[in-house]
Amino acid sequence: MKLIGQDRPGLVHALTEFLAASKLNVEQLTSETTITSDKTSGSEVFVLEADISARRKINEANLNQSLKKLGERLQVEVDLFEVSHYPGAPTEQTTTTSTVSTPSVVSVSSGTSTPVVAAATA
User: Which residues contact 102 (CB under 8 A, 6 or more apart)?
Assistant: First the structure.
């Protein structure tokens, strides 16, 4: 995703607060402030780029629409490119039950310091 607009305090806070409320994770975030070459104002332009992910499948069209509304409120431009999903992420309508296996050390070779780990079965 990318956010571009006139720099001012609170832009990162507002965006990350929105993402957290939407149950999205910020994987990587970079930002930069540059001064435009406009001779009359010389305003500072803030550019933020972020890779975001979700633990569940989301409707990206709805998310994009919500981000556009946030952009209007903040008076910035927000573009959503892609949301990556964790493998096996359930859809919004699906409830899944998973069994978690506890790893246990099976054996340690005397020639190495790395234990061999296997999943314990229930």
Answer: 119, 120
